[in-house]
Structures are given as structure tokens and as C-alpha cells.
Amino acid sequence: MIWNPQRESADRQQMQEMQGSALQAMIRRIYNHVPFYRNRLMALGIEPGDITSVEQLKLLPFTTKADLRDNYPFGLFTMPQSEVVRIHASSGTTGKPTVVGYSRADIELWAEVVARSLTMAGIHSGDTIQIAYGYGPFTGGLGLHYGAEKIGATVIPISTGNTKKQLQFMTDFRASVLACTPSYAAHLGESILKEGIAPEDVRLRIGVFGAEPWSGEMRREIEKLLRIKAYDIYGLSEVIGPGVSMECECQCGNHVFEDHFIPEIIDPETLEVLPDGELGELVFTTVSKEAMPLLRYRTRDLTRLHRGKCDCGRTLVRMEKCLGRTDDMLIIRGVNVFPSQVESVLMEMAETTPHYQLIVRRENNLDTLEIRVEVDEQNWSDSIRELEGIRRRIDHNIKSLLGISATIRLVEPYSIARSEGKAQRIIDERS
Amino acid sequence: MLIKQLSVFLEDRSGRLTELTRILAENDVNITALSVAETADYGMVRMVVGRPERARAALGEAGFTVGLTDVVCVKMPDKPGSLHQILQILTAEQINVDYMYAFSNSNVALAVIRSADISRVADVLHQHQLELLSESDLYQL
């Protein structure tokens, strides 16, 4: 089923017309109400009336995370605080958090795109959704919550953590959908096994997972553990939160709700727009948001875009699963390394678990990479020859994929901290 | 006759082995034989203990990666050539030993042997009239 067929299955010309008029209104809004944008546009000699079509997007200036920080907390808001009904903030790993504001219409827009997302995964009013994303300043919990209520599903707003209670609610309330980060989904799956809960007592059928990159292998592992079909939901708080794009049943990329969030792919070095199918940095322009619209916001996520009608009937442009974030990317001895690549190696091997950590150090001016991998509790050997064989195979597979060698350390199960939110995969001790 | 050896995967972390012996002590588990094999960053502790099932449950609960492995414990006289005789038998049968550890005590020597084909080790040694210990024998040591 398609929640909003008029928008989600519009032909290209209709979509471009919608985008063009929304963009025009957005430019007028930020020009009139946000000094930061007015100055940027004036510096380029652009007046609001100059922008009439979506093709002109490439003439407009970018917005970066640094711009958000410089205008902390409310400098990019278009409206007085009396009209802002909600504020979310994402925890910056360094310095100030990233703050975003929503008008009442923005909250409604957000519920709409999450309703489209859930419907896209086959979720309906008969479902019971356990929302194990964090509630609070993080957008995951409340974002899913409003969309789930909009489609009329039953919501269990349990938030993250307290795994025992998660399992109790999941079984006693017969949750049919689980929404959380993929690493927490894997942890819940393992906990079900560990607690000895009968598989038939878990009624889950669909998982909606996002907020961190995850590999296809991890998807299969979670699907096996929880006996569900797992869907990727993509979003970032700067754009709106979860519900920027979503996978349909074809699972051939995430459909971007481009009537509200216009995506572009740029070369992160030259800033030139790249054609469909080429890998580059994903950029969004939020044409419908009121309180804090962003012009050509650089997400730092690396992916590709594909157009053309999907078998599900939607015409919305699709983005591939993100290869990683430009700031998750480690540069080790000049080689680009994404945690997702390491994960795919581990998940292909039966003897290891998806629990790993990358530790980067600098010794004698040379970068070193150590990969800690938990041995599989169910499937380990007391023969050192066999354990060393596993280690050598990880070593070999990592080297052939990444092109650099790493020190592989086998560690005890559960010795790498389980995360209830985003998994901490990287410890960079350089600098 | 096979006995259950307790195998524990230990990360190279200070105090981890002490934690293991504390749990065994608290659960009143006696250690008959023990060997620690080490690599650069982890170790494998192998033990013959009284009440291996209880030991396994207690260690598992405490978060240790623990398993039970079938091994043979063969008894021989404490004199030169005893172990050689046993290994000769196994070599003649083309059986590879994965690992072993041995100790002797008042005229009796014992060797704990692990092989991929452990049932054959037991059969072959038994056919050669060698005495294999059962778990109940071990508790009396």
C-alpha cells in the first residue's frame, strides 16, 4: 500500500513542478527571515524572485554543520520562538549539540513522512509497534512515534534500554514491529536466545531500523535472530529526523520523500553536482519545513541516487544504503576505511559475531589498526589451532577487502560494550 | 573412557585468571589438573575438575566463555619411557594429539590427552591394556 500515492507516485514532471514552487517559497522565506541566508544569497547576487525552478538549485549556496554551530542555538530559525512547538538536539561528539526546531506544521509533516515510511514497509493500523529508539532530544523515538500513531498502529513507547523489560513487553503485548537501531536489534535478538524465550512467544514480523550504518550481512543476521523482515529507515535531525527516506518491499534502495527533501549528490572536493549513479556526498534541501529550513545541507553521508519507477509503484528517487559518513570514515595509512566494510567481512564468517571495535593508533608515526572481534559463544573451539585459523582468515579477508593489514584480536563474548543507541565502533587514539 | 575437561577462553586482562579461580573456589569445585596455553592476546585454560557441569554453569553465569571438551586421562607408572610407550601406540595408529598435559605423583603419572578423534584414542589405549581414569577416579585423587 502507498500512503500518499499522489506524491509518492507522481511522474517526474509533476514532481519537478511541485519541487520548483516549494523551493521558490522556501527561498523567499529564508531570505526574509534568516539573516545568515540573506547575506549568503545577497553575496551571490540572488534575489528570491530569481529562483523559479528546481534546476536552479545548483546555483545556491551550501549549508554545513559548521554553519549550524555558528548560528547556535536558534540563529537559523525563520520564526519567533512562540511559533516553534518543539526543539530536538543531537549530541555532538565535540562541542555544541546540533539544534533543530519544528513548527506545528513541521511536526505534522514529520508524522506524514514517517506514516509513508511505515506503510512502505507493510505496517498498518493492526500492528503493535515497540519503539525502542531513544525518546528525548534524539529524534528517533518521537519521530517514529507520531508516524506510528498517524497510521493508527498501537504504540509501545518503551524507549531504549532495560532489555529485560523490552523482552517482557515484546512477548506480553505481542509487538509485531520493532523500531530501534540495528545494533540494539541484534542485542535484543541475542538476549531472546540467552533468556531462553520460546520463538513462538515473539510475534515480531517487521523491523524498522536506522540511525547508524548497517551492512546487508547484519540485516540477514538480525532477520534470522528475530525471524522478521528488516527495513532501513534513513534520516538525520538536521533534515527532520527519521523519515527522510525509506526502503520499500523491493529493498532496492531507500525512496527519498523528495517532494519535501530534495536530494543531490555532489563531489565533496569540487562541490560539483554529480549525475545519477555516481558516488558522492548526499545534500538535502528541505523545501517544505517552516521553522528551520536548510538550503543544500551537506549530510557527509556517501551514497548514490537512482531514478526510474520502482516495482513497488513509487517514482520517488532512490538512494543506496550509505557507504558511511565522511566523518565515520577512517583514513589509515592513506586508505579510506569504513566500519561497515569490516562488518561485512565478519558477518560472512560463521565463527564470528557482528560485535567488533576498531582501534586506531599511531605508533612511530605509522597508523595501526586493531580490530577486536568477539568469539562466538555458541560456536568456539578450545583448540588454539582453530582459533588462530579463524584469526588468520579474518586477517586475510580484511586485507583483501581494505588493502591494509590489521591486528586481529579475539576477545571474550560480551566484552565489547553493548550499545542501546548508536554503537561505538571506532576508538581513534591518534592525535 | 572419556572425561569432561573444562575449557575456558580468557582474554589477556589482568586479574581474569584470579576471577576464574575465585568462582571455582566459591562453588567448591576442586581442580585436579590445569594447564594454561597462551597466545599474544588470549589464553586457553584447560582443567580437569570435580563436578565439571557445576563448574561450567557457575563460570557461564559469571560471563566466562566456557565449554566442556572430551579428553582421555591415562594412568601410567612414574618411570622413564612410560609416556613414550603411549605416544608410540598413538603414532602407530596415525592419531594426532592436539594437546596434552601431564603430572606425576607418588609412583603414578597421569596424562590428559586431547585429539580430534578422542573416542579412538580411548579405544586404542584400552586395547593396549592401559588404565584410563573415569571421573569418579579423579575425585579421589
Give a verbal description of the structure.
The complex is a heterodimer of chains A (431) and B (141). Chain A has eleven helices and 21 strands. Chain A is α/β, with parallel strands linked by helices. Chain A has two domains: 102-325, 3-Layer(aba) Sandwich (Rossmann fold), CATH 3.40.50; 330-428, GMP Synthetase, Chain A, domain 3. In chain A, strand 19 (366-375), helix 11 (384-402) and strand 20 form a beta-alpha-beta unit. In chain A, helix 2 crosses helix 3 and helix 8 (182-194) runs parallel beside helix 9. Chain A is globular, with a radius of gyration of 22 Å. The mean pLDDT of chain A is 92. Helix content of chain B is 33%, strand content 38%. Chain B contains five helices and seven strands; from the N terminus they run βαββαβαββαβα. In chain B, a hairpin with a 3-residue loop joins strand 2 (31-38) and strand 3. The longest helix of chain B is centred in the N-terminal third of the chain and has 11 residues, at 16-26. The interface between A and B is medium-sized, with 16 and 18 residues.
